[in-house]
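Page 37, continued from 36.
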């Protein structure tokens, strides 16, 4: 009975989280575009499925994924298996990234736009290697007890320096690749690993030391992909892209032998399972053959994993039915209206609303509240992250419209992050760095990528490869600034309250 009450509360929270997206879409459709979507029933059903999927997904995380990650971290810390811990961290990073749906979508898009010069598989492989390296490095930092900003600031300096030597065609894509690596399943597991490890090592603080692994996973792909681009564009032959080979949308006809809807459901469900299998394979291998212990509470863990699969699948189906077609259509309609203010406003509002509904952010915010013993409010944290994403996407849209180079914006942003790091309270810094990675996942990436590429395609003298990518990078950068701002404000208010009581 208590489980049912918990689920009902989660379902109510899911509908509350989706409300901003519904309001934004409804406002623009009714008052700006002044059209009622033809598939309104499908959209309503899709949003309902999204809410259900979110609730099931979160319950599955708390039942299965979080305990698994924390248990493994505890066991590694007890056994002092330094080599195996780093290997486990690398494999978790690599295996979860190589099959990441958002990364696959971006890599395929980059391959098409570049005329095959950027190979989709090797781009994904490069990003996966970089994430594996990042998670291992982040775990090493927790073991050594080093402050996270030493690593992050040095990483930003390397990113900026490489940017001046990397070809313009790869820069936006490289910045975006840092945002698409942290998936809905990876984020909770990696967060649980970091917090579990920090909780198991004497002298480590779960809040200060436990968070930060996601920040590493968002940073290193920007370095690795730019290096990959330098090699590709230095040694590959020029590619001639043939334009106009595809049929216009209105002329596309579907084969009478297209898959039955039931077949598509089964295929989509298998795809979700395939995304989670590499993670589970790594976990079970290390649990059973390295640590040599049975899975604790196997029925509970198994039920949690099943709930995660069902929740994630429902969530993706709901998005495909309700949000993605509508979001892509609206991006096209807004660019056709030739009103740049409406584009910026839509970018801001859609950034805020999609981030508030982001499962990975919800999971991290709940964990931050738990380990900080309520000092960090999960809802307030999510609002500040969402504000950062909103500002970032609006500014990114402005960059595309104006045709400015992306690295000038990113460099100024990183300088601001570095400055704020020295003023922000220590407990908020790792969470702020992580917030840049958890904002760009299942909900945000497809909508934001469609908006950026749509703008670059429809605005004259813009190159989709150079200008179209980069919005995800803006959505990853600005939450770090707003979350540290939240920490600074919260600390100031606490001090002021204490002084008033004296």
């Amino acid at each position: 009975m208590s489980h049912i009450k918990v689920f009902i509360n989660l379902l109510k929270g899911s509908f509350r989280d989706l409300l901003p997206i519904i309001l934004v879409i409804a406002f623009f459709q009714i008052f700006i575009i002044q059209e009622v979507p033809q598939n309104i029933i499908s959209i309503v059903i899709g949003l309902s499925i999204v809410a259900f999927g979110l609730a099931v997904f979160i319950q599955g995380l708390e039942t299965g994924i979080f305990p698994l990650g924390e248990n493994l971290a505890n066991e590694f810390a007890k056994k002092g298996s330094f080599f195996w811990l780093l290997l486990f961290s690398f494999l978790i990073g690599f295996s979860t990234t190589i099959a990441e749906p958002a990364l696959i979508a971006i890599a395929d898009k980059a391959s098409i736009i570049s005329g095959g010069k950027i190979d989709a598989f090797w781009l994904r492989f490069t990003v996966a290697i970089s994430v594996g390296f990042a998670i291992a490095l982040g775990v090493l930092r927790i073991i050594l007890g080093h402050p996270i900003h030493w690593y992050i600031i040095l990483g930003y300096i390397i990113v900026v320096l490489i940017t001046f030597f990397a070809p313009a065609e790869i820069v936006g894509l490289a910045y975006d690749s840092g945002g698409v690596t942290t998936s809905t399943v990876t984020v909770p597991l990696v967060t649980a690993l970091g917090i579990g490890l920090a909780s198991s090592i004497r002298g480590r603080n779960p809040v200060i030391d436990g968070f930060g692994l996601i920040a590493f996973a968002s940073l290193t792909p920007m370095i690795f992909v730019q290096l990959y681009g330098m090699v590709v564009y230095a040694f590959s032959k020029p590619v001639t892209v043939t334009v106009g080979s595809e049929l216009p949308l209105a002329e596309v006809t579907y084969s009478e032998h297209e898959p039955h809807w039931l077949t598509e459901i089964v295929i989509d469900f298998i795809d979700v399972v395939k995304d989670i299998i590499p993670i589970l394979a790594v976990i079970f291998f290390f649990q059973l053959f390295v640590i040599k212990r049975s899975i604790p509470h196997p029925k509970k863990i198994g039920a949690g994993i099943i709930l995660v699969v069902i929740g994630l699948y429902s969530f993706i189906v709901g998005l495909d039915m309700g949000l993605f077609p509508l979001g892509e259509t609206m991006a096209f309609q807004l660019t056709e209206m030739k009103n740049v203010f409406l584009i910026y406003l839509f970018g801001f509002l859609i950034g805020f609303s999609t981030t508030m509904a982001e499962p990975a952010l919800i999971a991290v915010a709940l964990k931050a509240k738990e380990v900080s013993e309520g000092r960090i409010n999960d809802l307030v944290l999510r609002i500040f992250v969402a504000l950062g994403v909103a500002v970032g996407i609006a500014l990114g849209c402005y960059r595309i419209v104006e045709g400015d180079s992306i690295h000038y914006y990113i460099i100024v942003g990183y300088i601001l992050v570095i400055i704020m790091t020295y003023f922000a309270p220590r407990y908020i810094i790792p969470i702020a760095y992580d917030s840049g990675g958890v904002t760009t996942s299942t909900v945000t990436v497809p909508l934001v990528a469609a908006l950026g590429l749509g703008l670059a395609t429809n605005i004259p003298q813009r190159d989709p490869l150079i200008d179209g990518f980069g919005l995800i990078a803006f959505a990853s950068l600005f939450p770090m600034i707003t979350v540290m701002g939240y920490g600074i404000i919260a600390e100031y208010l606490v001090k002021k309250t204490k002084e008033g009581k004296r």
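Residues 241-259 have pLDDT under 50 and may be disordered. Flag for discussion at group meeting. The radius of gyration is 22 Å.
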